[in-house]
Amino acid sequence: MNNVEVAPRSRNDLAKLAYEIRNILGLNDQLYVDVLHLVENILPNVFDDYCFEVCDKREMGNNHGLTINHTIKIRDDVYDGAANYVGRDRLTVIHEFGHLIMHSDAPKAFARGRVITYKDPEWQATAFAGEFLIPRHLVKNMSPDEVAIKCGVSFEAANYQLMKIKR
Question: Where would I find the IrrE N-terminal-like domain in this sequence (predicted)?
Fold first, then answer.
């Protein structure tokens, strides 16, 4: 159970943020984003104190990825999966990018009891990753199969994102 709370963000707020960041990075017309190129080659030019590390499973344990301050750590098997176009692993990399963008310097508070979804940093990072990898403005008339293939995500992620877009 996550007991850390951050500033509230709606799904629409996260979609706008993903759109703005894709625009800044020159990715707004691209369905497929090379996530490893982003975290290894582009982000070091954007953040002065940014660091990207691939760590072994002994160090990471059950964590597929972690973002601590301005360092993104990805477990080596997840890195390999992202390099081999595994949608879930690609989403994990962007999930951590979401933490970097939204939560590295953000004030956090410990919550008593359950954190409200829109104040949960894990929910925010996952929703951001879906919005970033599956951009609304490019996929709204596609099938889940098309989105999965063209955006390099799992069928489940494509289907979920399309349901959120239709709301």
Answer: 87-162
